[in-house]
Amino acid sequence: MVSDLDKKDIEIIKVLKKNPKMPMDVIGKNLNTSKATISRHVSRMEEEGTIGYQLNIDCEKLEIMKSLVQIQIIGSPVSLVIEQLKKIDEIGTIFKVFGDHNLMCEVFTQNVNELYEMVQSKILKLPSVKNVEVDVIIGRDVLHRDADITVYEKILEEKER
User: Tens of pLDDT along 132-159?
Assistant: First the structure.
């Protein structure tokens, strides 16, 4: 289901992206809107699945290495390979992708040796895996926190024309 966001929803999302823990009454004051109205908007967007929340952990502080493992599949449906990858505890997230690879996995290990061993003994052993490429993440810079909502605003503008 596609959600239709109004201007107030977009304003609320922009505030929550900066500070997801901001109380509803403070958001209301910042947007000149009542706490009740803000709460209704947020509740509706949560129920629709338009917005959600997650806890981010600083892997560097915990001395955990984070990598992206890209997988090219041959001869099996992607869904079957995903089911097999779900059994690998080091994989946090699997993305279905379009391009040279079919899947991209976010992988957590203690070090390069553990990463290498996991790829060799678990991923490359899967019969449908043709090729694997690994990139170790060494840093992250958020360039445009509102890029997603900016694109949505452009879509709305085009619809209004």
Answer: 999 999 988 889 989 999 999 898 888 8
Q: Which of 28, 55, 82 corresponds to the end of one domain?
A: 55
The mean pLDDT of 104-131, rounded to a whole number, is: 96
- How does pLDDT run across 29-79, given as a tens digit for each residue? 999 999 999 999 999 999 999 999 888 888 889 999 999 999 999 989 999
21-57 core/surface letters (b: 16 or more CB in 10 A; e: else): eeebeebbeebebeeeebeebbeebeeeebbeeeeee
Provide the CA 87 distance to its chain's centre, in angstroms. Answer: 20
The pTM of this model reads: 0.81
Task: Kindly state whether residues 108 and 69 are assigned to the same domain.
Answer: yes
What is the dihedral sign for C-alpha 57, 61, 64, 70?
positive
- Which residues have CB under 8 Å from 134's CB, separation 6+? 67, 68, 69, 70, 115, 119
* Whether residue 50 is found in the same domain as residue 95: no
Cα–Cα distance measured from residue 41 to residue 49, given in angstroms and rounded to the nearest whole number: 12
In a domain, 151, yes or no: no
